[in-house]
Amino acid sequence: MDASLLEIAAAAALGFAGGMVGGLLGVGGGILFVPALALFLDESQLGAVATSLLAIVPVAVVGVWRQNRYGNVRLRDGLIVGALSPLGVVAGVVLSNAVSERALELAFAALLVLIAGQLAIRGLRPTGADADG
Amino acid sequence: MPASEASRDRILKLAVIGTAAGAFSGMFGVGGGTVIVPLLILWLGFGERLATGTSLAAIVVIALLAAGLQGAYGNLEPLKALVVAVPALGGIAVGAALQQRLPERAISLLFAVLLLVIAVQLAID
What is the structure's pLDDT at A1? Predict the structure, then answer.
C-alpha cells in the first residue's frame, strides 16, 4: 500500500464515521467506506465496492453484538432477510441487463425519495400517535 | 388470521425484503440496510431501534456472501479493508450507544436524510 500517512488517516476517519452511521442507522457503512477506499487508498470504483463489502463484515458483526446487548436484534428475522438476498442479487443483475441503467438509477432515486418522505412523516408525528409504537 | 398463517405472512414479507435488498445491491452497489431498515419499519411495524439492529444481522450475511464472491474474482484488498474497518469497529459501537439516547422518531428523520443523500448521488451519477 503506497498511500501517504495523511491519506491513511483520512481513510481511517471516514471509516470511523461510516461505522457511526452504521450504529445509528443500521446500514453497513459502505456509503463512506467506498469513497474512503477510492479517494484515499487508490482503489478503482469496482475494487472499492468489493473491499468495502469485506470491511463491512466485522463492522456489522460488532454492530449486531452491541445492538443485541441493547435488546434491538431479532436474529432469526435478520438471518431470513440475509439468506434470501442472493435471490435478489440474481434478479437485480438480470434486470439491470434488460433495462437502461440510467432509467433504473432514476427510478431507484425516486423510490428512495418516496420512502424518505414516509419516514419523515413518521419522524415528525408525535410519539404514541400510532398503535404499533 | 390463525397464528401459523400470520407467521407465514411475516416470513414471506421478510423474504421479500431480503430479495429487494439483494436486488438493489446487485444493481447499484448500495442496498442492504438502505432498503431493509425502512421496509422493516414501514411494512412490518418494527420500531426504529429494532429495525436497525435486525438490519445489521442481515447485513453480516449479505456482506459475507458478496465479499466471498468478490474474493473469488480477486477483487479484495484486505489491508485496505483493515484501514477503514478497524476505526469503524469503534465507530459502530459509539454510534449504537448514541442511538440509545435518541428518540426513535429522530432515527426515522435521520434515515430520511440518508436516503435523500443517496437519491441525489444516484441522480447526479
Answer: 66
> Which cell is B123 given?
441522480
This prediction's pTM? 0.92
Angle of helix B48-72 relative to helix A5-25, nearest 10 degrees, comes to 130
**Where do the domains of chain B lie?**
3-124
- b/e string for B27-64 if b means 16 or more Cβ within 10 A? bbbbbbbbbbbbbbbeebebbbbbbbbbbbbbbbbbbb
Confidence at A133, pLDDT banded by 50, 70, 90: very low
CA–CA separation, A71 vs A93, rounded Å?
A: 36
* Partner B contacted by A35 (CB < 8 A): no
pLDDT band for position A127 (cuts 50, 70, 90): low
List chain A domain ranges: 1-73, 74-126
How confident is residue B96, by pLDDT bands cut at 50, 70 and 90?
very high
Q: What is the ipTM of this complex?
A: 0.93
Does B12 reach chain A within 8 Å, measured CB to CB? no
Residue whose grid cell is 474474482: B73
**DSSP count for chain A of H helices, then E strands:** 5, 0
- A129 Cβ under 8 Å from any chain B Cβ: no
Give counts: helices (H), strands (E), chain B. Answer: 5, 0
Question: Cβ contact (<8 Å) for A85 and B58?
Answer: yes
Query: Which residues of chain B does A96 touch, with a Cβ-Cβ cutoff of 8 Å?
Result: 26-27
Q: How far is B2 from chain A (nearest CA, A)?
A: 20
CA–CA–CA angle A119, A121, A126 (5° rounding): 110
